[in-house]
Structure formats: C-alpha cells, structure tokens
Input
Amino acid sequence: MDILQMNEISKVYGNGIYANRRVNFSVCEGEIHALVGENGAGKSTLMKVLFGLEKPDSGQIIVKGTPVSFQSPQDAMAIGIGMVHQHFMLVPSLSVTENVTLGFEPMGKAFIDRKTARKKVQELSDTFDLKIDLDMPASKLAVGIKQKVEILKALYRGARILILDEPTAVLTPQETVELFIQLKALKEKGFTVIFISHKLREIKQLTDRVSVMRRGELVASVNTEDVSEEEISSMMIGGGYSGHIVKSPAVPKENLVEIKDVKWKDRNSVPVVNGVTFSVRAGEIVGIAGVEGNGQDELIEMITGLKRYDSGEIQMFGSSIKNEEISSLRERGMSYIPSDRMTLGVATSMSIENNLISTKINDPSIYSGKLLSASKIAQLSAKLVSDFRIKCGSSKTEVSMLSGGNIQKVVVAREFTQNARLIIAEQPTRGIDVGAAEFIHNKLVELRDSGCGVLLVSADLDELTKLSDSIIVLHNGQISAYIENVSAVSEIELGHYMLGVNKQSASDIGRAYHTK
Ligand SMILES: Nc1ncnc2c1ncn2[C@@H]1O[C@H](COP(=O)(O)OP(=O)(O)O)[C@@H](O)[C@H]1O
Ligand SMILES: [Mg+2]
Output
C-alpha cells in the first residue's frame, strides 16, 4: 500500500529553473525506495517539498490517504516524516542527547528533565542499535557518527518515513556497510526509507524499488531487482554508460614527485604519517587507497604545500618543496582538486565563469592582444560548462546557487584545463552523477596519456582500481602495500591491506619509489 503519494508536483526556483516538473512519486509502506538522478535532477528539491522545507508551485501530497499541506518541517514531522540532510545540522557544542532532544525536551516542573531525556535517547539508540556516546559533544564526533545522531534525531521526533539525502557520500565503505544494516533493521520494524544515492551498486544492494529523475522529471519507478546497474544508469542519463574505462598500459617517464621517508606528528605527538616513500611519474596514475584517517589527508596536505612535514623530504619537478606554498607549486605546474571543495575549492559568491578563469589569468587564450577578452572568457566558460555538464542557468550564475555535485564539477573543470604536469585529485567524483563521473574518468586517462602524472585519492575502490596504474595502500600512516598489477588485485585483498590484516614485505613496498 502507498504510504505516500506526491502528485503532479512542480517547483520553479527564482532563477526560472524547473527543479521539479509535474512529478508523480509514490512510496509503499515498509519499503526502502531509492531516488536517483544526475546532479541537479531535482531529487533534493522533491524531498525538501516532502519535508516542508520548500513549497511546491503546484501539485498535491497525500500521506496515508489524506491530503496534507506543509507550512514547515514541523508539520511534516508531526505526521511522521523525518529527513537526514546532506549537510548535517547539529549544534557542535551540545551533547548527542541535547542535539537529539533539542526543541522536543521532556519537561519536569518548569525545567527540562535531563534524566528522562537521556533515558529516552538511550532506549532509542539501543532499540535501533545506533551505538553512540550520548554525552559526547557533537563537535567531537566522526562523520559517520554524526549521521547516526541525525537518524536518532528524526526517530526521536517520531519519524516513520525517513528521508536520507545522499547519506553514503560522506561515509567510508565500512560505515556504509553499518548504515545499510541499520536501514534494513528499520525496514524490518516497519519503517519506510527514501534513500538518495548515485551509487548504483548500493541501490542494488539495499533498495526494494527505485525511482529515476532526469531534468526535473520523474522518468521511471521500478522494482530494483528487475533492473541492472546499466539499465538504471541509462535511465538516469538517457544513454548508456558501460562503467568501463578504455585505457592502454601506462608509459611512465620521469619522476614528478618524490616523497622520501616523510613523517608528521599531530599535536598529541601521534605519528599520523610515519615514514612514507614513493614517487609519481609522468604518464601514470597512482592511486592511494586507505580507510579514512590513515594519514592520506595529511600526506596530500604536505605534498600540496598546505602542511609542513616534520622530517623526510618531498621534491616536486626536481626541487624541494620544503618552504613552498601551494600557490607557487601551482605556478610550477601542479593542479589540485581538494576533497573539501567548499572551503578550498571555490569562491561561492563569485560566478561560475570567474571561478573557472581564476587560475587562468596567464592563459593567452582569454586575451585579445594585451587585454582580457570578455567574449573569449565567455566562450571558454560556456565550453567548460557544457563539457563538464555543469547544470546551471548560465556561466554567469553564482556558484552558491549550484548543488554540491555541480560545484565539484566547476572545480574539476578548472583544474583539468590548466596544462598542469601533475594533477592531485582527492575524491574527484564524490557526490557526482554517473554521466559526469564517466567524463571525469576518461579525462583523467586522457591527461595521463598526454604525459601528465596523476595522484588519485579515492574512497571508492571501484574508481581506484578502474583508473589507477598502480596503487599505494596506506594503513596507520605507513604504506602497507604497493600494487603494481592493479587488474590482478581483488577488493578483498585491498581491504586486508587497508585494515592492516596483511602487509607486504619492505622490499615490495620499496618498489613504490622509482629510481630513474
Ligand atoms: N535554492 C535554490 N535556488 C535556486 N535554484 C536551486 C535551488 N536549489 C536547487 N536549485 C536548482 O534546482 C535544480 C535541482 O536541484 P536539486 O534538487 O538540488 O538536484 P539534485 O538533488 O538532484 O542534485 C538544479 O538546477 C539546482 O541548481
Ligand atoms: Mg541533492
């Protein structure tokens, strides 16, 4: 039975974009229902309408047979709809319990009854096996735990229908496995889950039905077991994506970066990067695998000049980077796609165009004689917007108006067109739709073939094994394996190196550094 129907929902934003166009979407009670579509397809908007965060311009919502009209999320919560957002909304200084009960605290005689509150939250966390330290301030929680708190928060407020907007985009593979167990347990208890994701394999694993959105419209709702990953992706992008990358063997040349016995300790003297040695050569893609928190972020920060190493040595293009800033490394031919695109990647208050050309100020193709040419800039930006499938009104649109995936595309488009010799890419396709991810993958291989060196960090093992010519696995701040024959390694083997179950011999690991 349908617990929920959204009929003929349309939503137009101020910029004239039809985010939703006559969408008909229905969900059965007790199912896990996937909502998929490219970035900008209108998924988040539809869910915001369902949660009372956005008012539709037309259409009707029916919950358990009764038409409803939401003025705010409070109205949606009152009838049992809860939402876990893409960006968490916890108060950092408050404890888990306080965050969960915020605004819905049980009252004693004029005071908030903290004991009862804690007990209720504890019961919930036990019932749903969401194990969290309830007294910990939210600021101290890992991302995966914050998400659990958000889920608890929704359950505490009485949600029976739970909306999760791209919950796995921020999770490690292990955390994702855990989340799926919890979502399946919720389903067993009769809850209904709406799950937004780009990852087709996850959708196949977890969901009962899948609805596909494309350009604001809902184009199909089908039983998940009736469709293959390929079929889902064709419905999403309206064409076929094989998921395979055509790539010839690498022809590596000289070392572009040499990392020798690099070490770094954090404030508590914990060795986070503990003697790492490898090199990246021109014409190859070197992947870094590792469970989040095993030193990869810090290592990249050191290679890009954002963090100083304590000891060891890093050379880029033949000279030490010991005292160099990221800006001078960029001038010397490094380009960098940071995983934290919001703070490091873009100026959100500027237009797409200005972001795209911000690093191309020395590029002759945007000049007419000695002067910057507005028309050449516009032409170049329009081409990048179309190549990289950036969904926007025009290239003059402010970046803050874009969805997260589209912001990522702006960063990638800018970094891929710099004529760099070395590209450092962290999670380059995280949160991006299959169509754009395919384009980015092919582009990385193309850049490699033109002689660029690529250092790729990705939590997506599929992406890593598809693209990389060799893989370095980091565990506990050290290299636990160097895989030269990537096509022969299984994800299970990689997982063992990632978790420290296995470690290669020192001489095998030593091969990660190439002497010319
Ligand atoms: N607050 C907003 N103002 C203007 N346009 C928006 C806003 N939110 C989303 N959009 C636009 O609406 C379209 C659908 O966005 P969204 O629902 O976020 O897509 P999805 O979640 O599928 O990536 C996109 O073109 C996006 O740029
Ligand atoms: Mg979205």
Summary: The radius of gyration is 24 Å.
